[in-house]
Specification:
The structure is a homodimer.
Chain A (H helix, E strand, L loop, with lengths): L4 E6 L3 H12 L1 H8 L3 E7 L15 E3 L2 H7 L4 E4 L7 H11 L4 E3 L2 H17 L4 E2 L10 H8 L5 E7 L2 H13 L3 H10 L8 H4 L2 H15 L9 E2 L7 H9 L2 E12 L2 E12 L11 E8 L3 E8 L3 H17 L25 E11 L4 H11 L4 E6 L10 E8 L2 E2 H14 L7 E5 L4
């Protein structure tokens, strides 16, 4: 058996403690699988005193994670501090500068500085592993970096935020409003006190930025992602989706187009009979379309201490095994510059829900504005007007054939100016999963 | 860049030719990803003359694959001949005896001789890779051997045969009978002229035998698998399943029980709203339940030249990278003996469809036989008797609460002897996917 792999773990929250516990508890199994013993030799966390469910005897303690990365007697550095900058970044850089491989669950660090860090790693003859940074326990990084290594990817998409998926699932199944559902999610610990990062789509965007680079061999470009959260989704939309044979999910999508890479995170209608549509609750799922495989789908837990720890452990085992592919799938020098396809050029079908004043000319306005912008309609459903409060309004739901984002925005802008609408039009993109 | 990896490919059917073409066509991409050039240096196939879509200049030709494995100037041997014995086995053994790693898509070879071959490999300091042997392009072997390496698995199950899934999907969507559907599948090349291996469940059993070993760290035991094919499934069952909120799939299941490992392949009713139930046509899917991850699901193409070639290429890249985990996930000496849980001890819900003579006492016979065997019923549906042909018979559909296979068999045996049934009872197991 080869010499032991000495690990330094920085950050002992739920995931970090879980990883250390697993290495202690499953020591023999892990050693048999990889032919090498894993030993935690150094630790760093904010507070030292806390009991964390594993035996820290013989492990060196560092108050400063950067000192651990710089001076610890370690063969691999496990960064579970979090945050795109600050000590997490400094510590990772310090480890890489020593040529020590880094295992991290830090999506923000990679989404913001992934290319620079990949360069630093390669320059020092090492790599970064980050299975836990995207979709928790789902082995999507390993799949994209290794299993698909002979494939050219055309699209990667999925459900990457458990909080949003949990909320949309409950809104659908229990008819809850967005606000009451959010409160419940917060009470249950599925949503943060400030939920913006999750429900605004930003968490999913960070993960998508990383997947895009792996998928297309391009530099990471978080700032190019079109991001729209779920806060405007109503039970009316969810019910209309069901009637039309769709379900609404917060989808993260990245695809190659003629004008560059299109990255977007937004609520989308997807066919109710698709496997992706059955992904409920906090579960995540990622699908990849590629030349050799056609389409594959991976679904599983997107968060949680033990699932994330499982992903971290998988990376540690790869380091122990001795081979790790290039951080972003290719040597950093071979990554292509990111070319952004503008969101206005996005092509697809659209669902539009309008609240229309029940008066002469309203429907003609809709029909004309769509026609003017070259938008053809797949279906139109107008419900009976609600006349109880003053001038009646009628809900109208349109589903368009494939058109462009620019055309839809122009049509809705003109429609709003015509003055027949009560309130803002609702628009949800339809994702074709074939 | 490290020295090139020299490959010998034996078997140049669709998959073998595809692999060689991809290595030629994607040469630069593959070398960038793994830091090493892949070069096919030796070939063997039945006929030499055939043009196969890649340049064979500089490649040594062997009429005998065993000679290639024994004498070829190669660093890895790619076996794409097929068959559990004969030259495929001999050639693989010859390569392993030289300490050369083997990449194979041969499920029969592994299901029958996997443990012996793993021992031979380990004894010579090398390993066998077989991503393409199970579920085609889905990276389930890599996932189980590497991504789940810290997990203890409790159940692995899935849709492992594309032919059966294609047929069941068409029977459901088009109301076709089994026989007409089989003929169509044969005409379209989705089923063999002798379809027994697929529709009898044996193909899925071979794949399951391999997954079971990886899941539970046990020796492979193909002969312990309870196998039941799909030929008795009727459109009536499919329609009844739909009414009850299920879909019928040929499921391969392996799980740990108190009395050992339970391996079975049979048609099963699974919840229509589950992700697995949406896996249609020739697509395969595998789900794994484990301690750290809960449940993950992988779906994708289960067969086809390019998907299988993609999996072979992924294995070749791993060999080029230099680390491969133990063939069956653990060193062969650490594999546990296989302990078989008897199928009669299987616990679950059951769907039973009876054709009952429309006479006094028939229903009492059903109720009594179930009660005698401790079986409680979740639902009973009796349709109106069909009186057009002599003594009328009425279809009766029962769904049981959880019970044992032994109890169901005893109840149905007694019921048949009571003489109230026209024809054999139909019984389909219900799989709980929670």
């Amino acid at each position: 058996m080869k010499s032991e792999l000495r690990l330094g773990i920085a950050g002992l929250g739920t995931v970090g403690a879980n990883v250390a516990q697993l290495i202690e508890r499953k020591s023999d199994l892990l050693a048999e699988r990889v032919g090498r013993k894993l030993t935690v030799t150094a630790l760093s966390a904010r507070r030292r005193e806390k009991s964390r469910g594993f035996d820290t005897a013989g492990m060196a303690w560092f108050d400063d994670p950067v000192a651990l990365a710089r001076e610890g007697e370690i063969d691999a550095f496990v960064e579970l501090i979090g945050g795109s900058d600050g000590v997490a970044r400094e510590a990772v850089e310090a480890a890489l500068q020593r040529g020590i491989p880094v295992v991290t669950a830090n999506k923000a660090l990679l989404a913001h500085h992934g290319v620079a860090l990949a360069r630093l790693a390669a320059g020092n003859g090492t790599e970064i592993l980050f299975e836990a940074a995207v979709a928790g326990g789902i082995p999507i990084i390993k799949t994209m970096r290794e299993a698909l290594s002979g494939n050219e990817v055309s699209r990667v998409y999925g459900i990457l935020n458990g909080t949003c998926n949990y909320m949309l699932t409950r809104m659908e199944k229990e008819g809850l409003t967005f606000d009451s559902c959010l409160k419940d999610a917060q009470d249950l610990g599925y949503a943060e006190a400030d939920p913006t990062f999750d429900i605004g789509g930003f968490d999913a965007a960070h993960k998508l930025a990383i997947l895009t680079s792996l998928a297309f061999g391009t530099e990471i470009s978080l700032e190019s992602i079109f991001v729209e959260g779920i806060s405007k989704i109503t039970v009316d939309d969810i019910n209309a989706a069901a009637e039309l044979g769709y379900r609404i999910k917060l989808l993260a999508v990245s695809l190659r187009t003629d004008s560059g890479t299109e990255q977007r995170v937004h609520p989308a209608m997807i066919p109710a009979r698709s496997a992706l549509a059955q992904v409920d609750g906090v579960t995540n799922a990622v699908a990849v379309d590629s030349d050799l495989l056609g389409s594959i789908l991976l679904a599983g837990p997107g968060a949680g201490g033990s699932a994330t720890a499982s992903a971290v452990l998988s990376d540690i085992m790869d380091v122990a095994g001795g081979f790790v592919p290039p951080t972003l799938g290719l040597p950093p020098s071979r990554l292509q510059p990111y070319v952004r396809a503008r969101m206005r050029a996005h092509e697809g079908g659209y669902y539009i829900r309008l609240s229309v004043f029940d008066r002469v000319g309203a429907f003609a306005s809709i029909a004309n504005r769509m026609a003017e912008n070259g938008i053809s309609l797949e279906s139109i459903v107008q419900r009976k007007a609600d006349r109880q409060k003053g001038e009646g309004t009628a809900p109208v739901v349109l589903v368009t054939h494939e058109t462009t984002e620019a055309a839809i925005r122009a049509a809705l802008g003109a429609l709003s100016k015509d003055g027949h609408l009560s309130g803002e039009p609702q628009m949800i993109r339809i994702e074709d999963l074939d």
